[in-house]
Structure formats: structure tokens, C-alpha cells
Specification:
Length: 142
């Protein structure tokens, strides 16, 4: 938990500046939530790549912006893989009139929050997740 490994992998390019600070922030998010984390890998990919993962592993046949997996055994520190569709992030930024940078970080934090145990299936869960994302964005950018 003291020195987690956090990696950013780009199968499809998108601008992600200040990675060292972002890694520190993500590690601190897990510490604040009291969730031990060993490893975190973000994979930035295309819509089609993520659609194939969605079909293969979740049996869902639709586009999504993010899929999060915890590969750790129960009771062990988080070993997460977070797949993010660069295409969805850009489209959502357009749809919500939000800067791509802000939308990208929202999704990055969203995946981390999933690994911390937050869900977004019900309206109540969605509201809590959105509030957590907003607080993370505010804390990170200010």
C-alpha cells in the first residue's frame, strides 16, 4: 500500500499531462478510502477495443466509456485494470460541453472509485458516485 504501482498504457493516444502528480493523487484517493492498493493499470483504447472486452468478459453488446476489473484475490490489495475508451471520453466531453481533460480525469477517478467499492447501478449510487467524482476533480484541479 505504501508504494503502489500505477501505469498508463495508450493503445489509442490521448493527452494526459502531469502523470506523476496524477499517480500521487490516485494513491492518496485509495489511502483516504482506506483501501489497500498494490497495482493499478489504465489502458486507454478505442471504442471497438472496449466493445470487444465488454462482449467477451461481461456479455454486454454496447459501447461504454470504462470497464474496471479487480484482478486481486479477495482480501488482497487492489490489483486493478481500468480500460477507458478515448472515443467515448471525447464524445462525452462534446455532449456535456466539458473540456476533454476534465472528462478524461472524471473517468479516471470513476474507475478508481469503483475499485474502492463504489457502485453506480441505482440512482442513489449514481448520485454518490457523481459527488465523489466531483470532489476528486475539484481536489485534483485546485
Amino acid at each position: 500500500m505504501n508504494n503502489p504501482t500505477i501505469q498508463f498504457n495508450f493503445l489509442k493516444p490521448i493527452s494526459l499531462g502531469e502523470r506523476t502528480g496524477l499517480k500521487r493523487f490516485l494513491a492518496s484517493l485509495f489511502r483516504k478510502e482506506k483501501i489497500p492498493m498494490a497495482e493499478l493499470r489504465y489502458i486507454f483504447c478505442s471504442d471497438d477495443y472496449l466493445l470487444e472486452i465488454n462482449r467477451q468478459f461481461l456479455q454486454h453488446d454496447y459501447y461504454t466509456d470504462i470497464i474496471t476489473f479487480n484482478l486481486a484475490e479477495k482480501g488482497h490489495p487492489i490489483n486493478g485494470e481500468i480500460y477507458i475508451s478515448v472515443d467515448r471520453v471525447r464524445e462525452n466531453a462534446r455532449d456535456f460541453a466539458s473540456p476533454v481533460r476534465k472528462e478524461l480525469h472524471r473517468v479516471i477517478f470513476h474507475g478508481a472509485l469503483h475499485l474502492c467499492g463504489y457502485r453506480d447501478k441505482t440512482n442513489k449510487e449514481k448520485l454518490e458516485m457523481r459527488n465523489k467524482e466531483d470532489r476528486a476533480l475539484e481536489s485534483y484541479f485546485n
